[in-house]
Amino acid sequence: MYQLIKNGQVLIDGQLQKRDIAIDATGQITAIEPTITAVPTDPETIYDAHGHFVSAGLIDGHVHFRDPGFTTKETLKTGSAAVAHGGFTSVIAMPNLRPVPDNLLDFKTLVARNQAETSVHTYQFAPITNELTEQTIVDMSAFKAAGAAGFTNDGHGVQTAQTMYQAMQMAAQINMPIVAHVEDESLVNGGVIHDGQAAKKLGIPGIASVSESAQVARDIELARATSVHYHICHISTKETVNLVRRAKKDGLNVTCEVTPHHLLLDDSAITSDNAMLKMNPPLRTLADRQALWAGLMDGTIDIIATDHAPHTTEEKQQSLLKAPFGIVGSETAFSLLYTHLVANGPFSLAQLTSWLTTNPAHVFNLPHAGQLAVGQPADLAVFNLTDTTTIDANTFLSKGHNTPFIGEAVQGDTLLTLVAGQIAYQKE
Ligand SMILES: NC(=O)N[C@@H](CC(=O)O)C(=O)O
Ligand SMILES: [Zn+2]
Ligand SMILES: [Zn+2]
């Protein structure tokens, strides 16, 4: 473990300033000062950040660790190593596992395994309904008591208004968020990419934007009627941005997330039958992408979450029609976002870090995450914002190499990640 981080650059009131950070034996930050002269006796416990950016540890509110059930894709060990490599120190894991942890025994076992087997703070979402697809809603209070961070059927939309309405009433009563994968299956029509130019050109069935936005519109009205905290996963369409903007204006407790890939890519990138560009929701149009940037700019979109969705190389080498939906995101998120949104984009480093630290801590009520401050756990990440590196799957700690961003030149490589003072990742 490290007890002193020297010569870091820390964001203070939106500006980078030189700071040293002292960490005690319990992993708490005890001082953040321009210069700390009380140096630990063991030189091994001193890390020289050499003027690089020291951030509060990032928070990812949407990851798939695949364990139990799909451990050829990822395990708790490889998934958490991957997120630490990306500078994340807290994540919330999705329950689309096998078995689905829709009974208390399986859920408690999973929560205990998350604690024991991951190198970061791994929180866990519980299902809304049995098997993520049935109508029977789980005993939400019992799952809350067992540690659930919220309720989601991610991978599946809740298909009936009746089930969603009841789930929202129950969640509102116990003050827990409904975290929604929004997808009206009656509007999907066997689509695998966005129903637009690329689908037409390649002769591949498309997924219309209304399959997302129609369900968002329904759910916002149900949220208005129940006063629940309604959080929308991976929004992808301009219509959804508009609906959320209006809901917020109306004072509803509605929040949402966007992924790095929906911000950085659109369906013009799909020029051949390449399943690395297949994910759910699909990459939409340039106009949608611009609406997502505008949504970040005006606060309609609260957070960026990766939807880290590892699959095996064999699975993703299949055609767009056959391959599973999803791409990995943990190990590329910060550098891609820093490069395109900040270094070459209109956003500030302070804005980017707010979408990855303070905002997710607030949205998901994680009181000890997202702040680099005295008295808080030393969850932090050091990023090299100046040198350019190339995204290389050989450096990935995830089992999943399924990303279209391989070979991209980026700034923002992770140098060090500490979780409560312990080294979760360090670049060689
Ligand atoms: N996003 C995806 O394309 N896939 C996710 C499921 C999901 O997040 O809906 C997965 O579990 O693979
Ligand atoms: Zn989803
Ligand atoms: Zn997901």
From TrEMBL:
Residue span(s) of domain Dihydroorotase catalytic: 53-239
Keyword ATP-binding listed: no
Keyword set includes Plastid: no
Catalytic activity: (S)-dihydroorotate + H2O = N-carbamoyl-L-aspartate + H(+)
UniProt cofactor note: Binds 2 Zn(2+) ions per subunit.
Domain Amidohydrolase: 342-425
Annotated pathway: Pyrimidine metabolism; UMP biosynthesis via de novo pathway; (S)-dihydroorotate from bicarbonate: step 3/3
Binding annotation for substrate: 64-66, 96, 280, 311, 325-326
Binding site for Zn(2+) 2: 154, 181, 234
Documented EC number(s): 3.5.2.3
HAMAP family referenced in this protein's UniProt entry, alphabetically: PyrC_classI_B (MF_00220_B)
Role this protein plays: Catalyzes the reversible cyclization of carbamoyl aspartate to dihydroorotate.
NCBIfam families with a match to the protein in the record: PRK09357.1-2, pyrC_multi
Protein name, per record: Dihydroorotase
Organism: Latilactobacillus curvatus (Lactobacillus curvatus)
The gene coding this protein: pyrC
